[in-house]
Every structure is written in C-alpha cells, then in structure tokens.
Write a structure and sequence with these properties.
four-stranded mixed sheet; 16 helices; alpha/beta; Dihydrodipicolinate Reductase, domain 2; seven-stranded parallel sheet; about 425 residues; homotetramer; Rossmann fold
Chain lengths: ~425, ~425, ~425, ~425
C-alpha cells in the first residue's frame, strides 16, 4: 500500500460550495448522494474510479484514493448560491438531467440543499434573471457578505474546511482591465463599484480571503486576473480553472493529438453544437458566447503547432458554433467535421458526432476538482494548480506568459506525475 | 545538433522490396518519387516530417532525420514481387489512388519498377489470381528462389543492403501449428510442402536467411510464428509487424485511450467499413476476413482493461464488419458508433465517420517501417522490434506471452524514447 | 361529413390476433390501451391520426376514421400465440421498449393477455426456442388446432369477427416449391408433414379457412404462395403483406423517389443496421437473414428504373447488412451512405443515420393493417390488398407477375385513392 | 410519339443571359458545352434526362423533350453580366468546381463568353466588389442600359429570343416597401434613385420590358414585388422564382413529406451548412443571410401543417445555420438532425449529412428553368409560373396570398401535369 507523503489529514468534513445550483451542480450533488447510498457508481470520476499502475511489475493498479489522502464522500457537505430560490431537488427536477424516478429516491437529501442569496449583475448575464439576490451598497460589501456566507456555512455544518467551485452560467466576455491588474486596484474597484468587476471575480476573491480554494468551471475571466492570482499566492491558497472540459472540446483534445502524432495535415476543423438547457440560453447572448468562443477556440493551437509544423497546420481554419436548440434540453450534441490531408496531398475527412449529456460529463469533474484542490491545499500547494488542466478547457498556467497544454494525454501524464510525486511506495 | 550514438552509417543504397505491387506499394513508391522531385511533401511520414522536442528549453523541435541516421530518400531503390505482370505505373493506374495527371508526371520512373515472379498459393488467397508466379518443386525451393531474387536485386541495383515489407493481400487465417513452432520443424515443413506454411512465411524466412530485415504489413500470421522469431534472433536480424495501422483502427486507438483516461464506461463499439479496392475483394472471402478480424479485434482489450476496471468495461461488446463495396474503390469509409455511459449510469453515444483513403494512409507507414527497421538493423537491434507498434494494428511483442499495447500515445512515447536513447545532444 | 359507401357496419367487437407476443405486438397492444385510457396519442397511425383533404376548397382536412367506417379502438380485443408463456405485461417488460413506469400503469390490462400455444418449427427459427408449443400428429392437425383457437377466441371474447397479423420472428428463407403451388398440393403437404411448409403458412391457411383476413408483417414467404392466394380468392378473404416498412427501408423509399425525380445518378447505396432485440438475434442466423435480405433488397429496383434510365442507374450497387449488436436492445440504428452523381459526372454523397426504435415504428402499422384489412373484408374486397403497400417493405401485388411499387408517395396516393373511392362527400 | 399542342416553334437561337458569371453560371455553361460535345451527360436535368410515363400500358417512358417543343442545346447561346471582367473560362477556373483537365478541353468555347458590365449596388452585397460596373445617372438609366444590352446581345448573336436567369449573389434582405407596390411607384423610384430598389429588381424590370422571361435563382426579393408581377402580366411575359432548390433544402422537401405521410411527430429540425465559395462569403454578411433564412425557413411550414395536425407539429422548432468555411470551396456540406416522436411519445432522431456540390446541383436547374420558361413564353403562359416550384426553394404563387407548396412530390406532379396538359398522345 502506498502512502501520501505530504498532505494534512483528510478527516473532518469538507464543504463544497458552488455558485450556481443548476443542472451541473445538482447533477454533481445527486451523483455523490447516489454513490453514498450505493445506488450508482461515480462513473467518470478520476478520484473515485481512477487507478495508478505500480512499478512493481504487477498488472494490478492501485486506486487513486488509496494513493493520496482525499476527502471521503461521506464527509462532504454541499452548499450553493443561486438567483432562484429552488432547492436542489426542485432545481434538478427542472433541469431534467436525472431520471425522475431516481431523483425521487433522494428527494429528502436534495431538498435540504437550499441556495444562499447570490451576487448577480445583469451586465454579465443577459438572458436570465431571478429573485434570490443579495443587496449591498457596493461590491466590497458584496464580497464581505459572501465571506460571511462561507464562514457561517462551515460553522453551521460542522465542517473544518471548504472549497468553492463555480458552476454558474457563463458571464459575458470581460477582458482584463487595469482594475484587475493588482490587488490594490481591485480593492479600490470593489469599493468604487467598478463595472469591470464581475460576480465570479467577487466569489473568487471572497473565497481566497477566507483561505478557501477556488476553481472556475466556466470560461469567464475570473481566476485569470493578476489581482486574484496574487492574492492566492499571498494567502497561500490553491486555485484552478477554467471551464470544465466536457463534450466537444474533450473529443477535440483526444483526437487532435492523435492526428498530430501521425503527422497528418489539418486544413479545417468545423465544430457545431446544439443544446437546449439554460447554458444554451445564456450562450445565445453573443457576449456570453464570446467568453466560450475564446476558451474553446484556443485548444487546437498548441497541439497543431504552426511554428514547428508549418507544412501541416499553417492554414488551419478552426470555426466553432454553439446553437440554442430547445428540443434537446441538457442532451447536447456536437458535430465536428475535420478536413485533413496526407500523402500526395490527398484530402480526407473525419466526422465526429457526439450525442452527449452536458451535466453528466461535468458532474464528475466538479467532484474531482473539489477533492483534488482540497488535497492540494492540505499539501501546501499554493496559487495556480496547472496540473488540473486535464479537467479544463482553458487551463491556467502558473508561469507568466506560459502556454497551456491542451493535449489530453499530456495533461493526464502531468496529473499522474503529481500524484506519484506525493506518494510513497508506488 | 544531436548525433546518432549507435547506428552504422546510412550511406549506400537501400533496396526496399515489397511482396505485392498493388495500391499500397505503388502509392508508397510514387510518394517517395514525388518527394524526391519536390512535387509533394511526404505528409504523414514520421521519419520525414516528424520532429522531437529538445530538453534545452527551446520550443524549436529537431527533425527526426537529423537525430538518427536514416537512409536518405535519394538512396532508396524499389523492388517488388507480384502475381500480375503490370509494372508500377500500370498497377498504380489500375488502383486509381493517385491523381492520374500527377501519375503521368512520374510515368517513366514508375514504369521501371517491374515485379519479380511471386510465390503464390491459392489456398491462402481465394478471390484473386494471376500469371506472374514462380514454379518450384517444393516450398524449400521456393524460399531459395526468393533468396536469389533478393541477392540479385541488391547486386543489380548497386545496393549495399535491403529490407522487405509485406504489402500484399491478406492471406487466409492460418493458426500456429506444430510446423511453425521451431526452425527445424519449419525447414522440414518447407521440404515436405506442408500446407500450413503460407507464402508470407516463405518471404519472411527467405529475407531473414539473407540477413535482411522483414516487416509484415498485413494481418497474416507470418513473423508471428516461433520458427521465424527464432531465426531472426539467430541471424541477428530485426523484424516487425503486423498490419499497418491506418483508418478505423487508427481512430480507435486514438479515441479509446481518451475515453479510458476519462473513466467513462463503454458497453459497445460497433465498427463497419466499406471499401472497394482489391483489399476489399480479398477480404470478402471469410477466411481472409478472419485474419483481419483477429488483428483488428484485439486493439481495445488492453486499453479497456476489464481486470482493473470491471465496472467500466466488463460488458464491452466489440463488433467489426468489413464490407466490399465497389463504388468506393480505394476510398475506404469507416463508421463507428460507440456506446458509452457516465455519471448516474447515463448513456451517451459517439459516432465517428472517417472518409479516408486506405493507401494514402498506409504509404507513409511503409516508408517509416522500412527506414526504421533498416536503422534498427544497423544499430544492432535484433529480433522483434516492439517499439514499432505505433505503426501497426497488432504489434508484435518481444517477450513470450506479453500483451501488446495499442494505445497510440503510449506507442508514440516508446518510439520517441528509443530514438532519444540512441541519440546524443537532445 | 363524408360517408362510407361500401363497408358493412364496424360495430361489434374485433379480435386482433397476433402470432408472436414479443416486442412489436406488446408495443402495439400497450399503445392502443394507452390511447383508450387517454395516456398517449396513437402517433404514427394513419387510421387514428391521418386526415384527407377535401375538394371543397377548405384547408381543413377530414379524419380518416370519419371518412370510412373503421373499428373503434374500444371495440378491439387482443389475442396472441407465442412459444413463451409470458403474458403481455411480462413480455413487454422483457422487451424493454415501453417506459417501465408507463407500463406499470397498464399492468392489469396487459397481464390479461396470455398467449395461446404456438405452432413452431426449429427448422424455420434457429436461434430461439420455447416451451409453449402445440403438439400434433401432422401439420394438417396443427392447422385444425389453430382454427379451433380462432373460433374459441372469438366466442370467448364476444367478438363478431377477427383479423390475424403475423408479428413473430422472421423465418428462414423458404423459396416457393411445388407443395406451395396449389391448394391441393398444399393440403397434401400438410397431411404428409412436408418440410417446406412453414408455421407462418399454417397460420395463414388456418385464418383464411376461418374466413379471417391475414396480414404478414415479416419477410417470410407465407401469403406469397399461390396456394394461399388461391384459397383467399375462393374463401373471399382479404390478405396483405409482407414485412412492416419501418426504419431504414422506410427512409429508403422516402429518399430514393426524391433522387429519382431530380434525375441524379446513383452508383451505390450501402445500408447497415445494428439492433439488439430478439429480432436481431433471429436475423443473426444466415437463413433468416436471407429472408430479410430478399424483402429489403428489392425496394430500390423499381424506383431506380434501369430500363428507362440506364445512364443513371445501370451500375447501382445496393448492399444491405444487418448486425446483431446487443447494447442497443430494441433501439435500432440504421446508417446509409448513398453515392450519387450529377452534372459533369461529379460525385456526391448522402449519409443518413436513423436512431430509431423498431417496435415503436412497427406498432402503429400493426394497428393500421388490422383495421384496414378488417374494413376491406367488410367492404367485400377479397384476395391480395395491393393498396396496403404503403405499410409494407415487400408489397404483394394482385396481378400475376406484377411488380410492386415501393415509392412511398406513390403508395400513399394509392391508399388515399381507395379511401376516396369508397367514400361520398369528400 | 406525342406532340406539343400549344407552343410556338422552338427553332431559332435562344439567348440565355445570366446576371452573374460565377460558379453556378459557368458550371451551367460548361455542362451544356460538354453535353453538346458528347463529353458528359446533362445529369440532373429534367428537360434533358427526364421522361414521362405513357398511359398506353407500356413500361417505356417518353423523353420530356420529345413531348414538348423545347429549345435544342445546339441552339442555345450564353451571355452574362458580372462585376468582374473574367471570362467564363477564367471564372470557372477560379471557382474550382469543374475538373481542371475537363475545363481545358473546352477552354476556347468558354473564353468567348465575356461578361457585360453589371449594375451593382454595395448596399445590397457587402462582402465583395469589382470593377466591371455600369455608370449611370439614375436607376432608370441603368434599366435602359440593361435593355440595350439585351437587344444588342440578341441581334449580335443571331438569336430570335432570350431568357434571363439570375445566377448572381444573394442580395441583402429587402422587404417590400411602397416603391415596390405598383408599376407607377416603381418607375418613379427608378427615376428618383430610390434606395429600396435593388439591382436584381432592375434586371427583372429591364428583361420584362423587353418581353424577355425572367427567373430569379436567388432568395432576393425581386420578382416577388407587385410592380414586377403586374408588368409581367401587362407585357404577357412569363416569370418564375425564387432560389434554386439544391442541397439541404432539396433533402428537406424530400424527407419532410415522408415523415408527414407517416404521421410521425416532429419537434425539432436543426440544419447547419458549411460552404466556402463566394456564395458563402456573401452569406457571411448577416443582411444577405437574412434573405436566405427567409427563403429556406419557410419550406417546412406547409408540409408540417400545424392547423390540421397540431398534435404532431405544434412545437416544431426549425433552426437553420449557414457557415462560411473556406476549406471546402464549392463543396458544400449540410448536416441536419431531426427530432421526431412516434407511438407512445417515444423520441427518435434522423441525421442527414449531405456532402454535395452547390453549383453541380444548381447548374441543371438553370438549364431547366431557362428552357421551360422559354417554352412557357412560346405557349402564351404569362405572369408567375407556379408549376416551376419543383426547382425552387421559395416558389412564387400566382394567386394573391396563396401559400406555396414545398413538398417535392406534389411539385413534381404539378410539373408533369402541365406538360401532359400541353401534349397530345401520351
């Protein structure tokens, strides 16, 4: 049996707090509850189902959760903020992701999860609105209210620590401005109600000030800004992001590395998506879509490296479309067509049609990011956790100007490496 | 600049001899000629287009052919055996893979490549037959005739060495029998005309006896048999195989590792193929298809490891169909539908439609295998070259009872590792 | 309001008897029960949802069931024969077509439908077997037992008439032999236990002798034989067949007429199917598949008429594959790729991927065929009802040597024509 | 042999004039030239390849061109207007639709077709511009210049009549305003340079004033306006439109009628298109796309009739996307996913992927519309020719407020009906 060399004990209760109590977070919560009850396995979760090969010659692999000291699912407590007052049962019912009969079996547990009032700003989310919102004189006060929520949640639920994972809608694209560039400027901005400070930035700032690790599951610019990264360093808090890598982008970062290894040329990659859930509705606003486009658009450029392989990739035309299409609900569908060329410049095509379920793919990632960033925090890793890139569409890098790696297999190697490095006896 | 630590000089002319002068081998030859003339780049070839990252912090990668001492394309000479008398120009014209106008520009070079008489046995290839066949009293004599062909080709073309790459049709399935189990039994079998000895085994045996490396590009049982592997060890000859990893299987060994890394369950993988070339015609014979089915069928079982991940893969149903469909000619088309499941046991589907070109994908692999096995031979690597698995559907392993790894990314890492290990200054 | 000119009254109870109590027939029965209870609409049923335009200038169309005098759903009674003893509730539960929670709401009604013992012959269905089988000295006696079943069912259930619709598995291919060519030969064959007489032929013969209309929903050779067609004429009984036109063939007879109208050339049509239900299991036996292949294979030849349009269709290569693939259960999937050519001989491709549900598409056809053949019988139409071709893959023709028309739109016009011809006031 | 009852003689030369000398018109011209030379058949053309069944009991069908008196291909002369000065050979070469080696064989013929100066207005086409443009004081003068072009072309080429078929880019969406509502208002508008009068309207007006039939092959609002329809009536000129029915919409109006006949419910139809030719570039401007969206968007609503079938179609969500994607050039690709439901409200999906060639599908339609409207004119049919709807995405109707029928099979029946009505002896 291997042992974790580094981390503080994982016993004690862990609060997992999510801004957003919608399709993704309720599916995450329901899945954890179902796993605790023994109803369903936590399929797709690296921390729960993953294993690591040993170097002892045996073919038998060791579960990740026996290698490092992760919080046990029985010690996890759920909390959330949302602009709607629906509890997790009602929100899950509306989202129609979970089989309704399965949902009934955990109605009681889910009903207990009632959202705290959210910090919301119409400027950043145009297509939806709700009533369960905090009131405050300025954004500084909003951050204070969020900090109070976190402290009280921990205390009221007998937790000894917490993590925050952003599971709310994609905010409008919000490029980095001066107010984001230093902690001082940001604090002034909070006090002056600077319009460039978005709700997701306030949640992140509040969490870090409380010493609570924060992960950004959407493509919003939040943990990306220097003010927050500096604060995380100063407070010795682990942060991660951005944007859960689920359907189409997941497939892209699986297939593209394979084409690259085979040195096939790529002249075009067209990706279209149809989805009918609230995420789709929000992304129907061009400003929110812009955030997504930036996060999704970058994933091919480091894999298809124009500098080293100009003959293969210099003309690559990458186009992404996201379409709100209500008949599908949460059942997203991706369709990609890839124009490649090979020997004698002959053209070929690959088409990938992914009939996926957005929240079903995101939920295990929420769990993994929550448990791994809690482990990182207990292991004294502070600031940006680049090795979490395996789970993310637009991985943060922890060196200035560094380029994120999007190759899923490279990312997996890095993830496994960190775990091995913190473990003895593998 | 890095330098090859190990290999003998690559100067001097290298004969690349292919049993089979059909779609694959003529496309390979035409592409090399086109690259020599500067008409087209050798897209898809690792030895020609591949690069290796350095450890010196630079983003600039170094071409593989600057890292190890590979034969130069200008020093390569082509030879072939075939049951038809068509020269390479005529064979390429029939195969309709190469643009006819491009083919005309290299007519003269291609016409010079005239096939030697082939060793053929109707028992192993039912659906086609030809006239350009050797006559011999027994299989031992056939091997001697092939050895003579090799020696004379080398001499007549001023070569100082050769490699043989099987590019002919898939033989009927031919399980390992006693006659294959030792060199002695095999030699007796040759003399007794044992019906279990197939032509591809005779080609391999002849090459190795001449000290010439041999690679099996089809799924036939040839270099797989102990008699041949033992001979290769004894003669210190490098061998490799089997079955070029091109269309559908290539995609499979790209996508499957990604699903595995993400711990998604897989309950079914249905693959169908349509193709209309001679390969398709041959595979329309159930016995030849059986060879293919065995080679293609195994690629998922090591990636989706039922032992370590029973909850995810224990019920995996993998079905492969190959259909002869003349309207397509060499333009193969693969269609896969993959039934996966995730969080809360929810089902999803991935469909992959690959409009590929069989010979276009195979040709650069012929070149890479030829040049790399020649390099291996000059570097004193003898017997099975397991690290060539990156190019092959059913990679040979060099330890008894070992299981081949089919994960394309694992295979690439091994390939790069061998190259780095034989190079200084990377 | 229009009125039916011809038919006898449709009041009184109608027994719908199905050889086979499996996925198709239980889905049919459950859907009728659900419609009677007002739970779900009978979507896909021409008799229940169809309408006919009027000639009075109004855009408002008139429901089919107001135009002709069809049996009311409340007057329908279900009966079945099967080799398994499962009642309709149990059989439906196994088939997993109907949502299990919906099925529970009609458990009581479904449980009442208990199969009569079947006439079964292992020669005709290889891959399954059961225990609920009749015993008899010879096939003549078997027919007598089936006649008795029909008479008793009608009496016990207070019906005044019945129809029989074959919903059982596809029998092995059974070409027409001498024994099938006359009523006399057939009766002798029954007495001599001629092995060329299949169970489906015995059911048809029994029904017709009872004056009960019969429809063949599978591709077996049954109502196709002269002996049965002659008997139907003599007994003045309406018959129809063969093979419900559901998934892939339905799409084919929709798309092909469109390509034909546009005078696009077609050089290939490749169709593959994956399905995992009992039907798939039976079709995994090559002899049963042969029946299906014949019924599915013919549908393009009258639409793509080589005689009149040789330049467009003379080289058409039509290939059909059916694959048993258990992960899908009843959720059939068809994938077609169509190779077309147009102006300047340029090639194009159409690909159609149909994620369908076999029994869901077949069930309304069972209902329509049952109600329409009952109406035909009451309207004194005897023998082959060619106008039912709209619902069938291999429509019977009522003139010797006639070629069936497979164009769905032509078939619909004929269907509507018959209804108009029998109605006043449209 | 049948005879045309009505039309004036088709002997004498016919000028076919196209605004636009781009991919569509050059492909049309090249195909006619190739047919005249016997190089390729005019596949896809109703007038050249189509046949009509007889009522004499024979299976042999009669060629359309033997039934009615169409202009012979040898009597056709091509002319065009374009904003670029490229002749038809150069334009075809740029468009890359025609195989370059085939194009060379007709270089001389194609080079002779040199565009006349075009009437162009940047307001209506944003994304391209050229130099070969007419100069004029006001739009009235522009119309006069176009009339002069037509008269001179006819005279210079020894023609005795002409037709004009709009083959140029899609203009920006241009709703009907007061200026379009009467001939008088329109003429005033021409003189006042009213900005709501688009170039396509000027071409149509000029042609009709010359007594020359006009067909609109794009979705622009041109022959749709009352001023032009009134003029056509007054001048006894035949007109037709709008928008050639080619790729995705063609498939839609083939498949939708089939689903409708089968009474399957449809809750969503998502259509996406990728194309890389000039048409795609123009449609990348939202105003031009709006024209297309209107023409493409309406085709389902009459087929899926919500009034008569509310249970099946009331919630139908129809979404269309067109994406400019340069890697494909003229090789358009459509991808549709259709969400249907059936018996027991079960959901199913149909996906259609059409790898088509835009101009290859449009070219035979240009020919058919030109020859048929010339025939209509000679047969004294004046005003809107509704029966040409078979070829068009948004068919004009000849009664005020009438709804066009988009069902391809209905349209074909109407086309055949008109031809039969004008012919004797069928």
């Amino acid at each position: 049996m291997s042992t974790d060399k580094c981390a503080k004990s994982s016993t004690g209760r862990l609060a997992i707090l999510t801004p957003g109590l919608g399709a993704v977070s309720t599916t995450f919560m329901a899945g954890v509850i179902a796993a605790r009850k023994g109803l369903e396995l936590p399929i797709g979760s690296f921390t729960q189902m993953g294993k690591i090969p040993t170097n002892n010659g045996s073919n038998k692999e060791i579960p990740v959760k026996e290698v490092i000291s992760l919080a046990d699912l029985n010690n996890v407590v759920f909390g959330a903020w949302d602009i709607f007052t629906d509890n997790a049962y009602e929100a899950a019912k509306n989202a129609k992701v979970i089989n309704k009969y399965l949902l009934e079996t955990m109605k009681e547990d889910m009903q207990k999860i009632v959202p705290m009032k959210a910090v919301f700003d119409k400027k950043y989310i145009k297509n939806i609105d709700g009533v369960n919102k905090k009131e405050y004189a300025n954004k500084y006060e909003a951050v204070e209210l969020l900090r109070k929520d976190i402290r009280e949640f921990i205390k009221d639920n007998g937790c000894d620590r917490a993590v925050v994972v952003w599971c709310a809608s994609t905010e409008a694209y919000n490029p980095i401005e001066d107010v984001h560039k230093s902690m001082k400027a940001f604090e002034n901005g909070l006090k002056n109600n600077d319009e460039n400070i978005s709700p997701s930035q306030m949640y992140a700032y509040a969490a870090i000030l409380e010493g609570v690790p924060y992960v950004n599951g959407s493509p919003n610019v939040s943990v990306e800004i220097p003010a927050i990264q500096d604060l995380a360093q100063e407070m010795s808090v682990a942060i991660g992001g951005s944007d859960f890598k689920t359907g189409q982008t997941l497939m892209k970062t699986i297939i593209a590395p394979g084409l690259r290894k085979r040195l096939l040329g790529v002249e075009g990659w067209f990706s279209t998506n149809i989805l009918g859930n609230r995420d789709g509705e929000v992304l129907d606003d061009p400003a929110s879509f812009r955030s997504k486009e930036v996060s999704k658009g970058g994933v091919l450029s480091d894999i298809f490296d124009k500098e080293n392989y100009p003959e293969l990739y210099k003309d690559l035309y990458h186009k992404i479309r996201i379409n709100y299409y209500p008949p599908r609900g949460d059942n997203k569908e991706g369709w990609d067509t890839i124009d490649i060329f090979g020997w004698l410049a002959e053209k070929m095509q690959i088409k990938v049609n992914f009939l996926c379920k957005d929240s079903i793919l995101a939920a295990p990632i929420v769990l993994d990011l929550a448990l791994l960033i809690d482990w990182a925090q207990r292991s004294n890793m502070k600031g940006v956790q680049e090795w979490l890139g395996f789970f993310l569409k637009a991985p943060l890098t922890n060196h200035a100007g560094g380029t994120a790696k999007n190759d899923l297999f490279y990312q997996y190697d890095k993830l496994e490496e960190i775990i091995r490095a913190n473990s003895e006896g593998l």
